[in-house]
Amino acid sequence: TETGLSRSAAADAAGGYAIRLLPSGIYRVTARRVGSAPQEQGPVRVTVGATVTVNFTLRDVAVTLSTVQV
C-alpha cells in the first residue's frame, strides 16, 4: 500500500468483516482461509468518512497437512 500499513481482521460466521479507522490511501486487500486459495484485490482507494466494500469468493483447494505427533 502507499501508506505502508498492514491490518488484519477475522470474518464472522456469515463471512462479513470490517477494518475500521484506516487513513485515506490506496490499499491491497487479501482474503485467506484454510482450505481455500488466497485472493487479493486492489488497488482499493479508501477515503476518510467513506465506506468501501470489497467482496471475495474463495475457491476451495486441496490442502496437504504435515504429520502430526501426539
Describe the structure.
The chain is mainly beta. 0% of the residues lie in helices and 21% in strands. The chain contains no helices and two strands. The protein has strands at 25-31, 39-46. It has a two-stranded antiparallel sheet with strand order 1-2. It is elongated, with a radius of gyration of 15 Å. The termini are far apart. The relative contact order is 0.22. The mean pLDDT is 88.
Please bin the fraction of helical residues.
under 10%
* SSE class: mainly beta
Mean pLDDT: 88
Helical run tally: 0
Order of helices and strands: EE
User: How many strands, which pairing sense, and closed or not: the largest β-sheet?
Assistant: 2 strands, antiparallel
Please tell me how large the radius of gyration is: 15 Å
How far is the N terminus from the C terminus? 42 Å
How many extended strands? Answer: 2
Silhouette: elongated
Which segments are poorly predicted (pLDDT under 50) over 5 or more consecutive residues?
A: none
β-strand amount: 15-25%
